[in-house]
Amino acid sequence: MKFCIFGMIAVLTQCAPVSAGTTDWTAEPLRGVQIETVAFRGWVPDDSEPLRGTLVLIPGRHGDGRGMAEDTRWQTLAASLRFAILGCQFSNGDKGLYQNDDRGEVAAAINAAVEHLATESGRPELANAPLAFWGTSAGSNVSSMYCKHHPDRVAAFASSKGTWGPGGDVSRNSAEIPMLFAIGQNDNPEWVSFSIGCIEKGRKTQTPWIPAVCPKEGHEVGASLDVAIPFLEAAVKQRLGMGAAAGGSSSFFKTQAPTMGTQSMNGTTPAKLQKINFAAGWLGDPKTGEVALAARFKGSKSKAVWLPDETTAIAWQTYIRP
What we know:
This protein is of the alpha/beta class.
């Protein structure tokens, strides 16, 4: 057992390897949000090249998401991006405070965990590298709060059945983050209505936010990963200037030219996330599910949903159709 100090956060850890490439550890309770159990599992791909970032996976209320770090579907996504994985557990305590953490205590714990993973894995480039998030239900809410506290670090965020979408108070910087919101039409009506309202409010100011309302689902994760995973792959690759998106399809989504010198050769300097330019991309009709390149889209572009690439567009179309 040992103490690891990261900035102002003291983390009591008991590190134990779970399987090749994975490590478990626990951290101190989060007193401000009344959470007693804070635990993580990290996974690092077997790649000799510098890693580009970390995929953070957060389960529903008081769930244990550490097992997701060993899920081959998430590992395949992470490996394609040269990302590590951080599976999270925030449990035993208040049910709501940690979801709506205005002081950023949970976000600070996530940052400390990423630093810990960087140290334990011998991958110092991870310490300040970009993050991508997936969360379900309460985990989606925690992820959206992280986007609020540290928007410049988030490459992309995919939500499965969160209860408030991006939240009602979104900063200009977090409005630049590509986000996908998988919503079950049969979920709690208040959650659905509030989530869609927040998403549409942002879309009116041209945010890269994607509503994906499934007519066949409620609050369960369901088939939402079928659209969340290709979205994360395409969005992260494009934000990091990695070229072609998921499935080998050429992306017509354009980003601003990268700033010279934003990433060192050894990977220890994090990449500067590229902003989104809406001049091109894929568009989808949220009512009919029709999708096309923006230049060929025949519906109302002002009401259309932006989609990063063809693979995501087809997955979105399948998910929202009856």
